[in-house]
């Protein structure tokens, strides 16, 4: 569910880093060689397997490394489907911006206008929080995945294997957050909170009368023909073709490795439950940046960023992050982490050069290096 550009231990963690340069390529060499090297380096670092697809004006290119199954040693495939975690957030924000374009809500509406009484308790006040603040993480709402009991229940070994098939409603997830004080007053700072997007999903249902998943299918998946993309709800399996997903289920990157492929993704809800593949993610982000999903006004809104402390080369929009790479190229997209799966999808501002990839392990590997290699290595 997390946003991250480096793999970290535990889906409740958040890490955002930029600027790791890839090795320069000599003239005349394979323009994807640096990307291949970065993918292999991730496997050498301990990631079980990687699948990656890039698309630009010269066509679509894929590479894989490592295995999709540690028991059978079957390799990863270019068309593997995987849990995309917080990449879900960009789909959710896109739907809300479409609703704004239709005049059905405003980014300046308060949460209480649509969901009275939902965001209240311990200092939380939905009458002071806007839809925009939910989407750019300036609401101050506590992140429910940072709740210690929730983390022990779903992210550490004993709790995970006892509770991995539990169903959590959006209301339960928000209530977990409301048991804590806000991180800050609305609009005064920035902090990544999965609760923001659980509330955003609830908003979509309140405004449209249909679940956020139904709206994503109707408004994004079907029009773009994203045949590998789904909103699983409580379905515990990942559709084939797919690989297994692995985690240490610990606070460190050492110890045994566990197969965590099967889980009830309602624990992530509209903050991170979706499934896709690399080709579909490239198609989605390219279409978004090219203006195929949003009118100009809403496209400008989704790309309006706020500063993220400690990241001088990055800004966070409405579930769309802008990163300036070491070579000066700007890429827009999002990262996603959920048990045993770490994913990245980015594209250039014109939508012409896109990259999406997945690590099927959540404790190692340098995804920054892969991004740098693709966009700066050649």
Write the layout of secondary structure elements.
Elements: H1 33-44, E1 49-56, E2 59-66, E3 82-83, H2 88-101, H3 111-114, E4 120-121, E5 124-125, H4 131-135, H5 148-155, H6 157-163, H7 170-178, H8 194-208, H9 212-224, E6 246-247, E7 258-259, E8 275-276, H10 278-289, H11 296-302, E9 306-307, E10 314-316, E11 321-324, E12 330-338, E13 341-348, E14 354-359, H12 367-376
Antiparallel strand pairs: 1-2, 1-14, 3-8, 4-5, 6-7, 9-10, 10-11, 11-12, 12-13, 13-14
Helix pairs in contact: 1-12, 2-8, 2-9, 2-11, 5-6, 7-8
Characterise this structure.
This protein has twelve helices and 14 strands. It is α+β, with helices and mostly antiparallel strands. It has one domain: 3-Layer(aba) Sandwich (Beta-lactamase). The strands form four sheets. The chain has an eight-stranded antiparallel β-sheet with strand order 2-1-14-13-12-11-10-9, sandwiched between helices. Helix 1 (33-44) packs antiparallel against helix 12 (367-376), helix 2 runs parallel beside helix 8 and helix 5 (148-155) packs across helix 6 (157-163). It is globular, with a radius of gyration of 19 Å. Mean pLDDT is 92; it is low at 3-28. This is Beta-lactamase family protein. Residues 36-362 form the Beta-lactamase-related domain. InterPro entries: AmpC-like, Beta-lactam-related, Beta-lactam/transpept-like.
